[in-house]
Amino acid sequence: MPEAIEGSFVDPASIVGKAEKAEKQNAEGAKSPAQNGAPGGGRVGKPRSLWSDAWRDLRRNPLFVISAVLIALLLTMTCFPGLFTSASPRNGDLTGAYLKEPEFGKVFSGEWLGYDGQGRSIWARLVYGARASIIVGVVVTAAVTLFGGFVGMMAGYFGGWIDSVLSRLTDIFAGIPFLLGAMVVLTSFDVRTVWVVSSALAILGWTQIARVMRGSVISIKQQDYVMAAKALGAGTGRILLRHILPNAIAPVIVVATIALGGYISAEATLSYLGIGLADPVVSWGIDVSAGKDQLRNAPHVLLFPALMVSVTVLAFIMLGDAVRNALDPKLR
Hints:
Blueprint: H1 12-29, H2 33-36, H3 50-59, H4 62-79, H5 122-158, H6 160-174, H7 178-186, H8 194-204, H9 207-220, H10 224-231, H11 236-273, H12 284-291, H13 300-327
Helix pairs in contact: 3-13, 4-5, 4-13, 5-6, 5-8, 5-9, 5-11, 5-13, 6-9, 7-8, 9-11, 10-11, 11-12, 11-13, 12-13
């Protein structure tokens, strides 16, 4: 009998039985958790990317929710100001200058925040002033992200003399004081529109993005998947766009989001000093500059546009902090 001498003979039937049992267990393990009774109902081993994990964390972050709601409201105000007021931001009545105090009970009228020195509705100017500030912030952020990201990517990937030249160029522009350089550029223009102010800020604001992208690319290009792509004969453009850029862009997005609020603040500062946007453009900085002379008699003329600048900048900074916490695995 097979069992008579232990270890001297193996029953073939037992081997077949064990193989069938192992195959059955493997088939059951390949089923979804819903079929096996496991919680979640998703597939076993389903890959999760950095962006899906970040989005899951952002949805649970109150800081992100609050900032996203504020930014969505500001964007709606920028695109559709007529939804918030029917009053004109430019037409005024001098007989009502500084005489109309805020009446917070009339929220849906154009006069609930009072009038400025020219008899113009403060609420209407707050609503229409969002357009100039948001456009400047978005345009400058997009320009510095594209240009600074390109410079940083070239410097970090190629290295050598290309890195040396681009890094020294970045240092030269970074050594120029941001607001002072923008003031020098803007004083050479007689008409300072939104696009002129955006260009002046973008010329000097790309250095931080370039440095962040350069450092990120230097660390990414040493990864195994980049080396494998080179070994397989992938071109430089394919490696940069398909392998390096998607993995190096996360810190750049964080810096750009936070910087957007700073660009809005810079536009308001330049307009306040009288070398940024000017009439007939409606801007919060212009209203703050016009209201500073009546701070004691009519403080609401200055406080409301200043409050809008502060809330807008705070919203983008909060959004940037939330995105940073979600994209940085070390902070989880």
